[in-house]
Amino acid sequence: MSVSITFDANQLSKRLNKVKENINAAVRPAAQAGAQVLYEAVKRNAPRSEKAHVFYGTNGKYLFQAGTLKDSIYQVYSKDRSGEQKAVYHIAWNHQKCPYGFMVEFGTSRAPAHPFLRPARALLPDAREAMKAEFMSRLGGA
């Protein structure tokens, strides 16, 4: 007399692969949800002058319209730093459109700082919550 038992992991393996696919599909939208929270805060924080202003650079002086800094703020998905189960978004200002953004953020010897990017870090817990909510909604019952 004998007793035998068999364990076939094929079905379990198929289900785990499906869960992994669902996780991979949810990563980028979840990261974007968190990035959106920070992006909106940076846009809100960016000062906007009432009128056009002059920027003095190393090659002369340049006229910038009111709102140039605010309009140059972007968020972008980083293909180079992202991969399987990882998505990276960058939020910054376009240095070509607004070369004086660094001076606004950090100030100069003649002008005080008006940080707009760094204060958004205070919203990292909110960004994490947005990511978690988006991630869980995309996974559903997986």
Give the SSE map.
Elements: H1 10-45, E1 53-57, E2 60-64, H2 68-72, E3 73-77, E4 89-93, H3 101-106, H4 124-139
Antiparallel strand pairs: 1-2, 3-4
Helix pairs in contact: 1-4
Write out key terms for the chains shown.
two-stranded antiparallel sheet, alpha+beta, 142 residues, rod-shaped
- Strand percent estimate: 5-15%
Structural class: alpha+beta
Order of helices and strands: HEEHEEHH
Counting copies of identical and different chains, the oligomeric state is single chain
Overall morphology: rod-shaped
By DSSP (H or I, 4+ residues per run), the number of helices equals 4
What does this entry look like structurally?
The longest helix has 36 residues. The radius of gyration is 23 Å and the shape is rod-shaped. The two termini are 42 Å apart. The strands form two sheets. It has a two-stranded antiparallel ribbon with strand order 1-2. Helix 1 packs antiparallel against helix 4. Strand 1 and strand 2 form a beta hairpin. The model has no long low-confidence stretch (mean pLDDT 92). The protein contains four helices and four strands; from the N terminus they run H-E-E-H-E-E-H-H. With 142 residues, it is an alpha+beta fold.
